């Protein structure tokens, strides 16, 4: 019998996996002696605030993990926060970090502070002055601290700024030595990565797994592909590689996103594999790779498979649009922000939407007690005439309002409201000339049909001033409303004419139709969009295509026809008369309605639609006579209606009554589908 194997001998003293991980990280951590010494002094004396800043991948997170170890070893209670998963509002920050306010031995570390940079002033002026004297605070992010820290003499002896830079050559060599990189690979690795800790670590991970890597370690563009191809060793399957590409493209990756983008594969298994990768982090919102890894993966797929990249992008986009439509109201901004994140980069859309979510302002719900503050804001922005308009609509449609506040002070800086109108009553017309003008413009151009409504976005403060920090939130809210609203016929944006807004709203495919409104002495242009003529999904694709990304160009589809019920019924009658004539059907206005939008052969699709409508009548026992009249007249090739009546054995007047009733029945069925059709998918 073989002797029993002592697992403790195999593992040495590291009989716990956590200890093994800790030991491995200890061996790989090099440099940063000055930073560690300063932190150790602060643990001894207390009352210190550190601000660590440097570019992505330079080792900020690794340093903070080391700080956590040092503080824990010193018996200090530690709180570690990550700005990527923290809501950028004072309330959320205090809820997560507030325990340090009551413990003078507490240590608070905030990683990725650039994601919540808008809180910086509030943290400096409102939060930190309340912490006990012995508390140690560390904030780490890409951006250096605001100059106000240094301008305030009160912070001179308390704040220590730690700019984190690449490792020194000797330290970089030590890191490679700690990772077990062979001597012959050090020179090409150092030439490729310099002293960048993450690039060195990733390069080392590749090099030690491939004995032939030295022949490829040259500082060329191909190095990215070489590094990426060996980053995780043997990838189990193409599906796993696709999942990794999805993770790199999106802001946060969830299992349901993987399932939507890769429907033919085991999403749960792929997600579990992703979360085990050494360069993928977990958060309450999902998984995300390190920034450097993300960009390498993105660059590789764009270069290697442009069409594959475009297809993946389109599937992710469709999923995110669905998320926007299904999200709770409070989650709409995050959902829209995730959509714009996948369009990050140079271009018109990127300039209009800052997906980095720095949190200078945050959205707040409207409460009745906010009315007078909102009145004062509107009066300052647009004049006394706005006071009664605000009171009128906050009483009638309070849930249409969203407020925007500064994160550092809570000051109300803006408000937007999507005011819905199903019909115009006399009180509304008298109280709000803008809404009355929007209603009149829609009625004169293309009136609302049964079940439809129009909406007017009103903005006070936010978005009307270029220096106001809230336009992105207002625009994200507007895009969310447009994608979520069912049976919205028209939307209007009311903006003062003192600024030229035409080019701005042109990006959103909204145009000034010429009818302006006057409120007191102020003139307002109404930028309009007819959602029946240009539905939400083609509209969104054209909007996002303005970002200049390497994705398929938006389909240049003509505007759809917006028919009244009378016009629609007339078009059905005409189409039935020409059911066998392809040219006549192609010219029928029904081929340009939402009912047939996007069909490759709309004339053939119209014929099929009408034939199916006739056949459907046969399923209703009460409509048998109507079905026979339509079937004989339009599907059996009889030359005249008189011949159809004779074939049916009916007096001509009886036949005509059945025929007209059948046409009316088919028209009504199709009309309901035109009005109440489900929202179309983002891609077809």
Describe this structure in words.
This protein has 684 residues and is α/β, with parallel strands linked by helices. The protein starts with 6 loop residues before the first helix and ends in an 8-residue tail after the last helix. Helix 9 runs antiparallel to helix 10 and helix 30 packs across helix 31. The strands form three sheets. Strands 8, 9, 10, 11, 12, 13, 14 and 15 form an eight-stranded mixed sheet that branches. A five-stranded parallel sheet has the order 2-3-4-1-5, with helices on one face. The protein has a two-stranded antiparallel sheet with strand order 6-7. It folds into five domains: 31-163, 3-Layer(aba) Sandwich (Rossmann fold); 169-229; 238-342, Arc Repressor Mutant, subunit A; 361-545, Aminopeptidase (3-Layer(aba) Sandwich); 565-676, no CATH class. The protein has 31 helices and 15 strands.
Structure summarized in a few sentences:
This protein has 684 residues and is an alpha/beta fold. It is 49% helix and 13% strand. It is built from 31 helices and 15 strands.
How many beta-strand segments? 15
Q: Hey, roughly how much beta strand do the residues contain? A: 5-15%
CATH evolutionary superfamily of the largest domain: Gcn5-related N-acetyltransferase (GNAT)
Name the shape in a single word: globular
CATH topology of the largest domain: Aminopeptidase
User: At the first level of CATH, what is the class of the largest domain?
Assistant: Alpha Beta
What is the count of DSSP helices, taking H or I runs of 4+ residues?
31
Low-confidence spans: pLDDT under 50, at least 5 residues? 1-14, 346-352, 463-467, 548-554, 678-684
The oligomeric state of the chains shown is: single chain
Cα radius of gyration in angstroms: 32 Å
User: Can you tell me the number of structural domains?
Assistant: 5
For the record, the CATH architecture of the largest domain stands as 3-Layer(aba) Sandwich
> Which percent bin holds the helix content?
40-55%
The biggest sheet, with number of strands, parallel, antiparallel or mixed sense and barrel status, is: 8 strands, mixed
The assigned structural class equals: alpha/beta
> What average pLDDT do the residues reach?
84
Spatial separation of the terminal alpha carbons: 67 Å
């Amino acid at each position: 019998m073989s002797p029993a194997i002592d697992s403790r001998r195999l593992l040495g003293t590291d009989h716990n996996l956590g200890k093994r991980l800790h030991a491995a990280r200890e061996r790989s951590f090099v440099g940063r002696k000055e930073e560690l010494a300063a932190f150790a002094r602060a643990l001894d004396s207390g009352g210190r605030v550190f601000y660590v800043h440097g570019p992505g991948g330079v080792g900020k997170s690794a340093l903070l993990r080391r700080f956590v170890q040092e503080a824990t070893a010193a018996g200090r209670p530690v709180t570690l926060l990550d700005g990527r998963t923290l809501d950028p509002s004072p309330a959320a920050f205090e809820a997560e970090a507030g325990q340090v306010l009551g413990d003078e031995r507490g240590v608070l570390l905030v990683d990725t502070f650039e994601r919540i940079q808008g809180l910086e002033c509030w943290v400096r002026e409102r939060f930190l002055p309340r912490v006990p004297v012995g508390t140690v605070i560390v904030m780490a992010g890409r951006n250096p601290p605001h100059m106000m820290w240094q301008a305030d003499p009160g912070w001179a002896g308390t704040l220590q700024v730690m700019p984190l830079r690449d490792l020194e050559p000797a330290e970089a060599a030590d890191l490679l030595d700690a990772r077990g990189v062979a001597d012959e690979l050090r020179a090409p690795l150092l030439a490729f990565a310099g002293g960048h800790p993450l690039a060195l670590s990733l390069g080392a991970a590749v090099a030690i797994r491939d004995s032939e890597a030295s022949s490829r370690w040259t500082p060329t563009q191909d190095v990215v592909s070489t590094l990426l191809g060996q980053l995780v060793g043997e990838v189990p399957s193409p599906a796993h590689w696709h999942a990794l590409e999805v993770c790199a493209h999106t802001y946060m990756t969830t299992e349901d996103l993987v399932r939507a983008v890769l429907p033919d594969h085991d999403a749960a298994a792929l997600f579990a594999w992703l979360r085990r990768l050494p360069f993928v982090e977990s958060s309450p919102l999902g998984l995300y790779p390190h920034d450097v890894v993300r960009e390498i993966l993105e660059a590789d797929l764009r270069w290697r498979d442009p069409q594959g990249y475009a297809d993946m992008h389109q599937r992710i986009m469709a999923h995110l649009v669905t998320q926007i439509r299904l999200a709770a109201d409070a989650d709409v901004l995050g959902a829209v922000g995730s959509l714009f994140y996948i369009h990050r980069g140079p271009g018109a859309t990127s300039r209009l939407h800052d997906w980095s979510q720095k949190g200078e302002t945050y959205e707040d719900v409207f409460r009745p007690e906010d009315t007078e503050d909102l009145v004062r804001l509107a009066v300052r922005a647009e004049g006394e005439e706005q006071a009664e308009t605000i009171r009128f609509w906050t009483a009638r449609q309070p849930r249409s309002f969203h407020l925007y506040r500064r994160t550092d002070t809570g000051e109300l800086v803006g408000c937007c409201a999507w005011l819905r109108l199903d019909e115009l009553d006399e009180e509304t017309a008298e109280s709000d000339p803008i809404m009355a003008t929007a209603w009149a413009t829609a009625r004169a151009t293309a009136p609302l049909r049964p079940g439809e409504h129009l909406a007017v976005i009103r903005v006070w403060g936010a978005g009307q001033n270029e220096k106001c920090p809230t336009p992105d939130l207002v625009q994200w809210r507007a895009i969310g409303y447009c994608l979520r609203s069912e049976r919205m016929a028209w939307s209007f944006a009311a903006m003062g004419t003192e600024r030229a807004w035409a080019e701005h709203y042109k990006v959103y495919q909204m145009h000034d139709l010429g009818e302006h409104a006057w409120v007191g002495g102020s003139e307002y242009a109404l930028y309009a969009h007819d959602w029946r003529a240009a539905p939400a999904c083609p509209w969104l694709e054209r909007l996002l295509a303005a970002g200049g990304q390497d994705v398929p160009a938006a389909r240049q589809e003509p505007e759809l026809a917006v028919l009244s019920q009378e016009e629609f019924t007339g078009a059905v009658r005409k189409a039935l008369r020409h059911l066998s004539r392809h040219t006549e059907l192609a010219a029928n206005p029904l081929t340009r309605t939402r009912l047939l939008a996007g069909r490759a052969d709309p004339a053939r699709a119209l014929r099929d639609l009408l034939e199916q409508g006739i056949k459907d009548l046969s399923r209703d026992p009460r409509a048998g006579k109507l079905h026979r009249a339509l079937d004989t007249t339009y599907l059996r090739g009889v030359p005249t209606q008189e011949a159809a009546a004779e074939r049916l054995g009916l007096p001509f007047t009886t036949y005509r009554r059945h025929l007209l009733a059948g046409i009316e029945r088919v028209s009504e069925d199709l009309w309901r589908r035109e009005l109440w059709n489900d929202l179309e998918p983002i891609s077809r």
